[in-house]
Amino acid sequence: MSTLRSLNRREFMSLTGRAGGVLLLGSSLPGTAMAAGHAAQHASNANDLGVFVTIDQAGDVEIICQRMEMGQGILTSTPQVIAEELCADWNRVTAVLGDADVAYGNQSTGGSASIRSFIEHTRRMGAVARDMLEQAAANKWSVEKASVKAYQHEVVNLETGARLGYADLAPLAAKLPVPDPAKVALKPSSRFTLIGKDVALQGQQEIVTGQAMYAQDVQLPDMLIASIERPPVVGGKVKSFDDSEARKVAGVVDVVRLKDREYPVAFKPLSGVAVLATNTWAAIEGRKKLTIEWEGGDNAMHDSETYKQDLVKKVNQKSKQIRVVGDAYDHKFNKDRTVEVTYTVPYHHHMSMETPSATAVVTKDSASVWSGTQSPQSGKALVLAELGFDPETESDKVDFKTTLMGGAFGRKGKNDFTLEAVELAKATGKPIKVVWSREDDVKHGYYHSVAANYFKAELNADNKSDYWIQRLAAPPISWIFNHEAKEIADLGLSLGFGDVPFDVSNMSFENAEVSTHVRTGWVRAVGNINNHFGLGSFVDELAAKAEIPTREMWMNLFGEDRLFDPRKEGFEGYTHYGQLDEDRGKKEYLLDIARFKAVLNEVVEKSEAEEALPEGQGWGISIGYSFNSYVAAATKVQVVEDTVEVLEMHTAIDCGMVITPDRVRSQMEGAMIMGLSMTLESEITVKEGAVTQNNFYDYPVTRINKTPPMFVHLMASDKAPGGVGEPGLPPILPSITNAIFHASGTRVRDLPVNKTMKV
Amino acid sequence: MLKLKINGEETALDADPQMPLLYAVRDIAQLTGTKFGCGLGLCGACTVHMDGVPIRSCVTPVSVAEGKSITTIEGLGSADDLHAVQKAWLANKVPQCGYCQAGQMMSAAALLESNKAPSDEEIETAMQGNICRCGTYPRIKQAIKDAGEELQKVNS
Ligand code: FES
Ligand code: FES
User: Fold this and answer.
1) Chain B touched by A353 (CB under 8 Å)
2) Domain B84-154 is of which CATH architecture?
3) In whole angstroms, what is the distance from residue A732 CA to residue A738 CA?
4) CB A154: neighbour CB atoms within 10 A?
5) How far apart are CA B147 and CA B140, in angstroms?
6) From CA A369, how far away is CA A433, in angstroms rounded?
7) Confidence band for A29, pLDDT divided at 50, 70 and 90
8) A174 φ/ψ angles, rounded to the nearest 5 degrees
9) In principle, which of A26, A124, A176, A215 could form an S-S bond with A357, CB 3.0–4.6 Å?
10) What ranges do the domains of chain B cover?
């Protein structure tokens, strides 16, 4: 549970490096910091403090947001939750991004977890501060606390109508003991004035005036820019290189060979040769003049097309059962009533607008690092290890500062680029900023993997199903940490695969062993991308076979309204996006069939996706549950000859309690657009071990002229909050390909669509 | 030394004439509001105005800008007098990560300079060189229309 106490100014400054105010509160947050050693060390330590609230002499509130901002809006949402319970005037609240520090609890920003995993604690943070301000006012007026009430940055005396502002109360409150956070009352949702309301967003003014600080914007005196040529094949090394021409380029100061690194690839730099120059252009020009001979790499035989065919073969054979219901194999499938198909997706890349970048200064006994990363503490732990500092006793040797991220989508949880800056800064003794070119970013990513999903099901007389087989073949992301890993772990199998909530009496879910040849990694929604592309397409195929509307097919498969717990339906290892531990194992986090049906109905009704359309047009629908949220999508397309045009898109989302409605909408809009890119035109291919794409010309993404009118239907709910950043994406892919089928009769089972049709 | 005007100020830059304007502006003039996204003129993140015309600074040698007037996002409006585009961007809550938005706003401001009531097609044509990976296009469209209306009011 959280510890909560007030800090004196010195403590606050030493913990946060900020000047602080009059009332200073810190709270520990639950979480599994990736720097496990740190977490353990601080667990019973007063320094283990989470989100910080300060109130200064003017009464203004500053809240440090410990989760990283990459466009999802957490810099607004977390402070919004705290300010709600604090009864603060939002206009007087400033949010600040926290630097890397175990003091903040888990900062690893991913898994669409920032709200759903921390809301209870962030609310209590604000509530404790409010309680103390109320107590201070009650003391001042010599009345019971029940006779006062905080409201809009003031405490009101309910008996006399007198008021005291937070500026006056903060110094008094700071002297009071901190109440037990578990005992302070949280506001009932009926009294919310900020949660669920569209407030002014933090940080927008800086963005529109060009003042926002991203990783690439860090400037230090005497800083050198590094441009790095990395081995084209994972596992490859520099055999020899000639830098004589590179060194002649004006502005080039040095050329440094980076260290070779051993497997597992983890978040280590890829090695290579760095050109260091006084400006970015000189570094790029110098790098062009390098001649490098590369050495092998045990993945030089990798070809993504052959690999995909191999995965298809694997899923067309029985493999290891990870979930069994009844016995799907004790049955002879009736061919006429059975659909048996395989779906494939290619490698995908995050392609955030800002390419990876980090800056480092390393001296003999300390280091300062600036990075745009989703995982500042993991990054800091890696930096400490890289520099040989003891993570337990010398953690303060590294000052790890965070910046905004110009997009991330999972890529920037991996600090390979941060370590490159540190390695080069150490080698040269100079401040170094590493900037990845777009080509570097495309060729040296952590990709969503090629995957094959197989489905076989037989329809019964009621157009339901009694026999169902599903198989998955894709490399495990855990390979990056364990070079021997061949099987996707339970965590990965819980992403839209083993958790299919259908009422079918005989089911088998199987997972094949697969070898890995590129750096794989979490890309927005992770395995849900291929698993939901498969599932959403397959239900549509079953509906077509049954000659019923797709919505009806989903309803038939869902069966009765109930709470669905995959652990009790044959998949014991189900991980449920981290929400199953007893502390948080609320019933409302089980898969709720009624909520599935409601979002599906919502999207169909709002989009009118079951209305007839002119020849050549079609609607496609799908639904996906991920990160504890329910999202349904409907897409309308037109197909003329074999050219696809997307005409209209809708999503309906039930993410439980909503904090910042506008940012839920913006995430759904973004998911629809990323879904268009992934489905229609983006693809990473690998030949002879190397990525063949380079830049936006061969990894195209959706542009404004291909963006149809979009509608988001946000469903009010008082259920526990679910994730938002990722859940929008999975149902988009099949909604598009299903629409193509209904418009043209062409079923696309291998993405992207532009391999078979014009887009 | 190359002489040019940046955001109204006479500036002398000690840069190789071949250096793309983008790096001269970011690394030498230290104006980091203009962003790198692709380096090949494909994404629009680096858009600035040269004598009022939107250009991709990543593929424009700084020598081309010699003697010209360059406007970057820092010079589009001022903190207390935002450009209509910036105001509309705020009102529509356009930015997600925000990284592409300087380029988006520079392209949008240039469009509205010549056409204060652009149609959807005109917006799409003017803006399709600007990529937003976060997916803010629907709001960009709306914000451009709002800013156009605002500018018409001011002018009438
Ligand atoms: S950086 Fe200039 S167009 Fe992309
Ligand atoms: S707002 Fe993030 S790339 Fe456009």
Assistant:
1) yes
2) Orthogonal Bundle (1.10)
3) 10
4) 20
5) 10
6) 10
7) very low
8) -60, -20
9) A215
10) 2-76, 84-154
pLDDT digits (tens, 9 = 90+) for B46-101: 999 999 999 999 999 999 999 999 999 999 998 789 999 999 999 999 999 999 99
**CB contact A71 to B (< 8 Å):** yes
The token duo for B52 is: 């009022």
Strand partners, A5: A26
According to CATH, what is the number of the domain A215-298+360-435? Answer: 3.90.1170.50
Cβ contact, residue pair A669, B136, below 8 Å? yes
Q: Which fold has domain B2-76?
A: Ubiquitin-like (UB roll) (3.10.20)
In chain A, which among 185-244 make CB contacts under 8 A with chain B?
201, 203-205, 207-212, 214, 216-217, 219, 225
A467 within 8 A of A327, measured Cβ to Cβ: no
Residue in B with minimal Cα distance to A349: B133
Distance CA A611, CA B45 (A): 41
For the record, the structure tokens of A154 come out as 């003031």
Q: Please tell me the CATH code under which domain A304-350+446-755 is placed.
A: 3.30.365.10
- All structural domains of chain A with their residue ranges: 6-201, 215-298+360-435, 304-350+446-755
Sheet holding A320-325, edge to edge: A320-325, A506-511, A465-473, A451-459, A338-345
Q: Which two tokens stand for residue B10?
A: 């006479």
Are the C-beta atoms of B94 and B139 separated by less than 8 Å? yes
* Segment A108-161, tens digit of pLDDT: 888 877 778 778 878 888 888 899 899 999 999 999 999 999 999 999 999 999
B49 CB within 8 Å of a chain A CB: no
Cα A646 → chain centroid: 26
Interchain CB distance below 8 Å, B40 and A438: yes
Chain A 416-435, residues with CB within 8 Å of chain B CB atoms: 435
80-119 in B: which are within 8 Å (CB) of A?
82, 86, 89-90, 93, 95-102, 105
Mean pLDDT of A280-308: 95
State residue B50 phi and psi, 5-degree precision: -115, 115
Q: Which residues of B touch A355 (CB under 8 A)?
A: 36-37
The residues pairing with A263 across neighbouring beta strands, listed in sequence order, are none
Q: CA of B33 to nearest chain A CA: how many angstroms apart?
A: 4
The pLDDT assigned to A100 comes to 78
Q: Pocket of ligand 2, candidates B38, B73, B89, B101: which has the most ligand atoms within 8 Å of its Cβ, to mutate?
A: B101
Tokens of A218: 């860090």
- Give A730 to chain B, closest Cα distance, Å: 16
Q: How far apart are CA A639 and CA A745, in angstroms?
A: 10
pTM above 0.90, yes or no: yes
Q: Whose CA is nearest to atom 4 of ligand 2?
A: B132
List the single residue in A210, A250, A703 with the smallest CB-CB distance to B16: A250
A43-99 residue pLDDT tens: 222 222 234 678 888 888 888 787 888 888 888 998 899 899 999 999 999 888 877
Distance CA A725, CA A716 (A): 18
CATH of domain A6-201: 3.30.365.10
Assign 3-state DSSP to chain A and report helix, strand, coil percentages, each to 5.
30, 25, 45
Instruction: Determine whether the interchain pair A354/B97 forms a contact, defined as Cβ–Cβ distance below 8 Å.
Output: yes
Alpha-carbon distance of A306 to A311, in angstroms, equals 9
Contacts of B99 in chain A (CB under 8 A): 214, 352-354, 406-407
Please, what sign has the CA dihedral across residues A309, A314, A317, A322? Answer: negative
Q: Do domains A6-201 and A304-350+446-755 have the same CATH topology?
A: yes
- Spatial neighbors of A12 by CB under 8 A, at least 6 apart, are A18, A20, A24, A26, A52, A54
Which atom, in ligand 1's list, is nearest to the CA of B59?
2
Q: Where is average pLDDT lowest: A27-36, A198-207, A362-371, A717-726? A: A27-36
